[in-house]
Every structure is written in structure tokens, then in C-alpha cells.
Amino acid sequence: MPGIRTVLFTVPLALAVLGTAAAPAGAAHHHPGTSLTCHGEGVDPDARVRHRTETLIHAPLRTIWKLQTDVTRWPSWQASVKTAERLDHGPFRKGSAFRWMTPIPPNPATPATELEITSTVEQLRPNSCIRWTGPAIGEGLRIDGVHVWNFTAVEGGVRVSTEETHTGAQVDADVPTATEILRQGLEEWLHELKTAAEARADDRRN
To answer: Which of 102, 100, 77 is nearest to 18 (CA)?
Structure first.
């Protein structure tokens, strides 16, 4: 059963998984409306740890989609992703799977190590939405996640919305903290996606 030692362990570990830096003001914002879906499927309705947020990216939809689905190149623009590999071949599609690694700093329970995340695409509509699921596993920790992305062309760019839920003994032991860590991680991901996509769009215009 998780106790205080486990909770102390979970916080720095999950920070490493989800990204410790909060996004700059205005880069993304919480959007508490109805849950996002892809082909009618959404996040885990029973999860206690969840967050939804979105941002406007001033770049072509094709640029944003390419960055998000070319998972082997995530380490080139996501600071917290150290390695990423596809476990299948061909176009990114329903059934595609990928494994990515993120470092874990030393903490009261374990030495520095790495967390392994294996994600499987359950639903996908090209240039519109993605839903993937899968576990994040490290020494003494398991988080089962469901992650949904929506991409909507709007005036001035693309609105990228994302929602994720986490379940597991460690995160359920401290829902407010786990939810805040998830919020930070999702907003940092959106910030880095926005930065990379807009930089590519600027390069093409110059």
C-alpha cells in the first residue's frame, strides 16, 4: 500500500515524466469543458487524475501534425524526452506503438534512473485527432495513461487541445499533487510544440 515514502518518491518521479517547467503565461490555458474524443473515444471516465488544456499555434496544420506524429524526432524539440522509437513501421496510424524514455532524478527512494513509456495509438483521424494509451513504468511506480489530442484549424492558425488521465496507486494516493504535475507536463508539451512549429513556419517564410 502506498505510504508517505511512496508519495515522496512519486512527486519527483512524475515531475521527470511530465516536465517540471510551467509553460509561459498565455502559452496554454485550462479548458474544463466536455472531454475530448477521437472517433468517439475519450479519456478514462473513472480516473481521478485528469487535465485538459489547449493553445493556439500560428503554423500550418501539416507542420504541427508532422511534429506530433514523427515520434522518433521528439527528442529534438521536447527537452524531457531522451529517446523515442517506433515499434512498428510505415505511416503513423491506428495500432502504431512507440516506446520513449525520460530520465528520473535521484530521490529519497531510488537512485537516478529512467522511466519507460510504451504508447499505442487506439484511434486516429489524420490532421484531426489522436488517442493513445499505455503504461509509464519505473522502479516503484506505474502510471496508466490515456491521452487525447485534437487539432482544429481556426483563423490565424491551429487550436491544439489535449486531455489526459492517469490512474495508479501512486498517483491516486495524492490526487491534487498528481493533477498539478499533469497540468504542468501538458502545458509544457504544448509550449514546446508551439515553439517548434512556429519556428519551422518562420523558417519556411524566410
So the answer is: 102
Question: Are 178 and 54 spatial neighbours (Cβ–Cβ below 8 Å)?
Answer: no
Q: Say if CB 8 and CB 176 are below 8 A apart.
A: no
Higher pLDDT, 31 or 76: 76
Cell 503513423 sits on residue = 92
Residue found by looking up cell 499533487 in the block: 177
- In the three-class reduction of DSSP (H, G, I as helix; E, B as strand; rest coil), residue 155 is classed as coil
Q: Which pTM does this prediction carry?
A: 0.83
For the chain, how long is the longest CA-to-CA vector?
A: 57
> How many Å apart are CA 54 and CA 24, to the nearest integer?
13
Compute the Cα dihedral for 62, 87, 103, 47 and give only its sign.
positive
pLDDT tens-digit readout, 7-42:
333 344 444 444 433 444 444 555 556 899 999 999
Beta-carbon contacts of 158 under 8 Å, excluding residues fewer than 6 positions away, are 56, 57, 59, 60, 61, 64, 151, 152
